[in-house]
C-alpha cells in the first residue's frame, strides 16, 4: 500500500518559491504525478491522508483526475482540515473508501477571485461573473455526482461559507464513516459516533536554515525532494513526549527520534536516544536484573569496607602490643606510665571563727576566778 500525504496548500510549481520564502511549502500536480509514477506496478492501493485548506483550482482538478486515472484503488481519510479544492481531491475515492477523523473540519464555498485586478471595465466584470458561474456549475456537478446529494442542498451549504464537522460531512455524502479511536472496544465502526478525543493544538511550524536551503534546492530542481517523515508521538511514564519518525509498527533501534535522553515508556521499556537516533531499547526484565545486580554489588562493597575497617583496627592493636612486649612488658608499662596512687584524703570540717572577745569588767573577772577555784576544790578526789 502506498501512502500519500496531502497536508499543505495546493499550488502550482511556479508558486512554490512564494511558499518557501515564508518557511512553508505546497503540493502540486507534479508532486502527485511523480509519486504515482514511483509506485510499483504490483502495488494497487493508494491511501491518501488529507489535511489541507485547498488552493489552486486547476492544480486541484488535475490531482483529482490523476488519482482516478492511476488505475489504483484510492482511499481517502481526512485527518484535520479539508476545505475548498481539498474536498475535490477527497472525492477521488469512492464513497465507501472515504473516511474522516472525529474532529476533522470541512468547508465548501462558492468560487471567488481572491483579488480583483485594477482597471476593470463592465465587460471585464461580466466576463469574470460568467467565469465564476461556470466554475460554480462545474464544482456543483462534481459534488452532486460523487456525494449523491442534491444540488440544492450542496449549493445552500456552499453559500453559507462556514465550517462543518464530520457528522455533517457524512450527511452531505463527502465521507461514509468516522475512524474509531484505536482504544475503542467496538468490533464494528459506528457512523456518527461521538468519540471522546481530546483536540490537539496545532504546533507552530519552525524551519531551520538548512531546511530552507533544502526547500530552495527542491524548488530550483537541483535537489531531489525526500518524502516527509512521519512522527509517531509516544507518551512516557512521566508524561513527557518522545517523537519517533515511524509511520506504524513497533519502534526499533536505529529509528530517528527526539529529544535525546533516556525515556521509560508506559509498558516499562526504556528507550535511549543519542544524537537523534534510538541506540537501545531495554525490556522491563533487563531493568530489574540490572537494578538487582547493582544492589548486590553495593552490599558486597559495604561488607568488604566493614571487613577492611575491622582488620585495620586489629592490626593497630597488634602493633601496639608487640611494641610494649619488646620494651619490657607490663613492668615497663607501669614504670613508663607511673605507679603513684594518691592517698585517701581526710575531711576536716571547718570551724567557725572565734567570736570577738568582749570587754570584761573587774567584778566579772573576780567572779570567774572564784568559780574556777570552787570547781578545782570540788573536783579533787576524796
Note the overall shape: elongated
Q: Regarding CATH, which class of the domain at 2-109 and 161-195 and 204-220?
A: Alpha Beta
Residues in helix, %: 40-55%
Distance between the termini: 154 Å
Total DSSP E strands? 14
Radius of gyration: 50 Å
Low-confidence stretches: 184-209
CATH architecture of the domain at 2-109 and 161-195 and 204-220: Alpha-Beta Complex
Q: Provide the residue-averaged pLDDT.
A: 78
Assigned CATH superfamily of the domain at 2-109 and 161-195 and 204-220: 2-enoyl-CoA Hydratase, Chain A, domain 1
- Could you tell me the CATH topology label of the domain at 2-109 and 161-195 and 204-220: 2-enoyl-CoA Hydratase, Chain A, domain 1
Structural class: alpha/beta
Q: Approximately what portion of the residues adopt beta-strand conformation? A: 15-25%
Tally of separate helices: 11
Q: Would you list the SSEs in sequence order as H and E?
A: EEHEHEHEHEEHHHEHEEEEEEHHH
Q: Mind summarizing the main beta sheet? A: 6 strands, parallel
Structure write-up:
This protein has 382 residues and is α/β, with parallel strands linked by helices. Among the domains are: 2-109 and 161-195 and 204-220, 2-enoyl-CoA Hydratase, Chain A, domain 1 (Alpha-Beta Complex), CATH 3.90.226.10; 231-282, no CATH class; 286-328. Helices cover 42% and strands 16% of the residues. The chain is built from 11 helices and 14 strands. The chain has helices spanning 16-21, 29-38, 57-69, 85-90, 122-147, 151-160, 166-172, 209-220, 284-327, 329-337, 362-379; strands spanning 2-6, 9-10, 26-27, 45-52, 73-83, 98-100, 105-107, 177-178, 231-235, 241-245, 257-258, 261-264, 270-274, 277-282. The strands form 4 sheets. Strands 1, 4, 5, 6, 7 and 8 form a 6-stranded parallel sheet that branches. The protein has a 3-stranded antiparallel sheet with strand order 9-10-11, with no helix packed on it. A 3-stranded antiparallel sheet has the order 12-13-14. It is elongated, with a radius of gyration of 50 Å.
Amino acid at each position: 500500500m502506498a501512502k500519500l500525504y496531502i497536508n499543505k496548500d495546493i499550488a502550482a510549481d511556479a508558486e512554490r518559491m512564494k511558499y518557501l520564502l515564508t518557511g512553508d511549502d505546497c503540493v502540486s500536480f507534479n508532486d502527485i504525478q511523480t509519486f504515482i509514477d514511483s509506485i510499483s506496478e504490483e502495488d494497487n492501493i493508494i491511501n491518501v491522508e488529507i489535511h489541507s485548506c485547498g488552493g489552486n483550482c486547476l492544480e486541484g482538478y488535475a490531482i483529482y483526475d490523476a488519482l482516478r486515472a492511476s488505475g489504483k484503488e484510492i482511499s481517502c481519510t481526512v485527518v484535520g482540515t479539508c476545505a475548498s479544492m481539498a474536498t475535490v481531491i477527497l472525492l477521488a475515492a469512492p464513497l465507501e473508501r472515504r473516511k474522516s477523523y472525529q474532529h476533522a473540519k470541512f468547508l465548501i464555498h462558492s468560487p471567488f477571485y481572491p483579488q480583483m485586478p485594477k482597471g476593470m471595465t463592465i465587460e471585464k466584470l461580466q466576463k469574470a461573473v460568467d467565469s465564476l458561474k461556470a466554475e460554480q456549475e462545474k464544482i456543483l456537478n462534481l459534488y452532486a455526482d460523487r456525494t449523491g446529494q442534491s444540488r440544492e442542498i450542496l449549493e445552500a451549504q456552499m453559500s453559507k461559507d462556514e465550517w462543518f464537522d464530520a457528522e455533517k460531512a457524512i450527511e452531505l455524502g463527502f465521507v461514509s464513516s468516522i475512524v474509531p479511536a484505536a482504544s475503542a472496544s467496538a468490533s464494528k465502526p459506528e457512523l456518527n459516533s461521538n468519540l471522546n478525543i481530546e483536540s490537539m493544538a496545532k504546533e507552530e511550524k519552525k524551519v531551520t536554515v538548512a531546511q530552507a536551503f533544502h526547500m530552495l534546492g527542491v524548488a530550483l530542481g537541483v535537489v531531489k525532494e525526500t518524502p516527509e517523515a512521519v512522527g509517531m508521538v509516544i507518551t512516557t511514564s512521566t508524561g513527557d513526549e518522545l517523537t519517533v519518525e515511524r509511520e506504524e509498527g513497533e519502534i526499533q533501534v536505529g529509528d530517528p527520534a527526539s529529544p535525546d535522553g533516556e525515556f521509560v515508556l508506559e509498558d516499562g521499556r526504556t528507550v535511549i536516544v543519542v544524537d537523534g537516533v534510538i541506540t537501545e531499547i531495554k525490556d522491563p526484565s533487563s531493568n530489574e536484573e540490572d537494578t538487582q545486580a547493582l544492589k548486590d554489588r553495593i552490599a558486597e562493597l559495604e561488607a568488604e569496607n566493614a571487613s577492611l575497617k575491622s582488620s585495620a583496627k586489629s592490626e593497630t592493636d597488634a602493633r601496639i602490643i608487640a611494641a610494649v612486649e619488646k620494651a619490657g612488658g607490663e613492668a615497663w608499662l607501669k614504670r613508663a606510665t607511673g605507679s603513684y596512687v594518691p592517698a585517701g584524703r581526710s575531711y576536716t570540717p571547718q570551724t567557725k571563727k572565734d567570736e570577738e572577745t568582749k570587754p570584761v569588767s573587774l567584778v566579772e573577772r573576780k567572779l570567774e576566778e572564784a568559780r574556777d577555784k570552787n570547781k578545782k576544790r570540788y573536783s579533787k578526789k576524796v
